[in-house]
Amino acid sequence: LRILTADTFDLDTWKPASADISRSQLASRGLPAPPGLSASVAQHRYTMQIRVGNALDQDFLPLPYPSQRVEIQGRWLYDASSLNVIGDGETVRGKTYTVDYLAVQPTAQQLRASPPAPAAIHTAFTQLPALLPDVVRTTAERVTSGASTNYDKAMALQSWFRDTGGFSYSTNAPSSAGGDAVEAFLREKRGFCVQFSSAMAVMARSLGIPARIGVGFLPGTSEGSGGYVVRLTDAHAWPELYFEGAGWVRFEPTPAIRTGPAPAWAQPSSPGGTSPTDAPTAPGASAPGGHVGNKIGQLPDQSAASAPLPPAVPATTPAPARPLPWRGVALGLLVILAGTLAPATAAVSRWRRHRNAQDDRARAEAAWTDLREGALDLGLPVSPSRTPRQVAAQLALVGGLAPGGATLALDRVTRAVEHSRYAPSATAAEHLDADVQAILRALASTRRPVVRLGAKVLPRSGLAVLRRLVGRIAR
Fold first, then answer.
1. Which of 19, 72, 147, 208 could form an SS bridge with 97, CB 3.0 to 4.6 Å?
2. Are 266 and 274 a contacting pair, CB within 8 Å?
3. How far is residue 224's CA from residue 368's CA, in Å, rounded to a whole number?
4. What band does 273 get if pLDDT is binned at 50, 70 and 90?
């Protein structure tokens, strides 16, 4: 199950590219065809039912790729380039939904014979920062020196990470995926899926192969009858490489001890890109080429719903006696405390921000941060990689701001922060706080009552501060 793709690499981290998403792009009406996929590649249409518990609370929808249509309550919009699906003021927590998707199964021969990617794809997805350490590129060239096609180079990289390069899987490695972290990973040869996927994607780009990162979940644990339980501990990241005719294709550099077998088309021991039917399957992984779901036209097995969190205890099995789960009780108390303190934490954070703003530049940045946090509290997507003007345009569009006072206030705040960053002298910032409040009131008026209540009672800005604090205490 993929949650999102991260396709912009800035040396420090991977992040989703900025994209303008129209509110008319409803996933329930159908998603566009996946980029690069042709009819010559084997593909079968399936349906899957997914049920999410309370442990996952974020805006992006976990889906198989490529999805074609999603039946779900609420407004869920798709990004046409990545097919990511994001909630319009919605979160995935507690949702049950059905998705039609394609199981795409290219062969090794098809990937090896793939023509060059279109210029737009190649340009966008082979970009690398100028300050990328040279050792990353030279190592990629050395590992793939005997390969002549992009597919063979991808297989050489995957095999090096999984089998021949002396790498080991470890959850104790740093979580960074930036350029320096890739260099350190290549030197220390120890990490988990973030390092493996980032290193392979960056090295593929250095060889001229379009690449990005997929973030989501491993298949989980089979319940029988086609159902799987997927937990947060199954979270995973993997590289996706582009091959014209097949589109975005998943590879698996993370060792089998974590992931099980690689995809059927990425198994070097399987000529023709098909895996042996008796290939062993690691616990918690699906068989190569296997699919959770029912073919369209067959009666869906409702007992095969994917991702029930947590699984129910069978009625015929008595639950064993257990001691009081003190860690769970403590965690529950922390959650309750966080819900109580979140509004106060957000307010204190804003007060400290403005107290430390001593000049017009700092006051403009403080006002802009207030606006961004307030919009996020209301469930409005605000990408950190966008310019102030792009953020303002997105808020005006997605927030449904009508021409008038709020849009004028938004323009004033945007110009002030642009001047603070790029002009010789900053614009006077005496009235920006009032403008920010006017904008947030206008945005709130377009949101559902439950969203407005959540922004007041459990603001994400306050929860983010508390999460960092609790994380430090836990460590």
1. 72
2. no
3. 51
4. very low
